[in-house]
TrEMBL record:
The species this protein was found in: Rhizobium aethiopicum
Record carries keyword Transferase: no
TM segment ranges: 32-52, 64-83, 108-136, 148-176, 196-215, 235-253
Name of the protein this chain belongs to: ABC-2 type transport system permease protein
Keywords: Membrane, Transmembrane, Transmembrane helix
UniProt KW rRNA processing keyword: no
Amino acid sequence: MLIHHLRVIPLLVRMHVRSQMEYRGAFWLDRLAQILSYGSVFATIGILLARFQTLGGWTWPELALLFSFQLLAYSLGAAMSFVQLRDLEELVRLGTYDTLLVKPFSPWAYLVFSGLNVGYAGHIILAVPLLCWAVLSVDFIWTAPSVAFLLAAILSATLLTAAMITMIGATALMWVRSNHLFSIFFGFWELTRYPLNIFPGSVQIILITAVPLALTSSVPVGALLGKPIPILGNWAGPVALAAGPIWVLLAIAHWRYATRKYQGAGG
């Protein structure tokens, strides 16, 4: 079965990418719009820094590193999960999810790879050059261990993002409706563009525990740069690296539980 999946997945991805690139002009215009949208957000942070010099003790290059890290990790994780799991609610509501259950293929794998979102290319095109500039501009001495930590932290943040989105989407298998939870997710996600220490203690706790999106941004970046991390302290680095794999295991368990509870749109 594993070999069968590995053979089919590249075909699913290739078919979806071809469908997305059928109208290339429209596709790249959408990517340009994404770049301008997130570029304006980064420009807003720049305006704040021009007025106040630092934000929570973070300088302009450090905030650029934080912003690009958060955007890159999110885009990689969401490309594997967001649109696919957001649409799961509609599949369940219409009863068409049942057709996936009779296929000789994992429903999760089919959803994810048949809908791989290459539209996040705009996020990546903006995030990667900005990350490279920030790495070169930040007042930090880079070593092999620190580079390894940065790469591992990006991977962990990517896994955590995909895992949380998967768990939200899988809830539709039990409740039929789950997309309202994405509004909560993105509400907290927008906060993670900024250092964790500028928020009240209650918000810091939520961003580390219940909605641990700080572990995809300011916690790993702050640990890398030697910034004081609220609540976690010296454990910030190890926690950030372990969060991704742990939440993937939680997402697998949640998906299996939701699948067992699934009874179809008719209940």
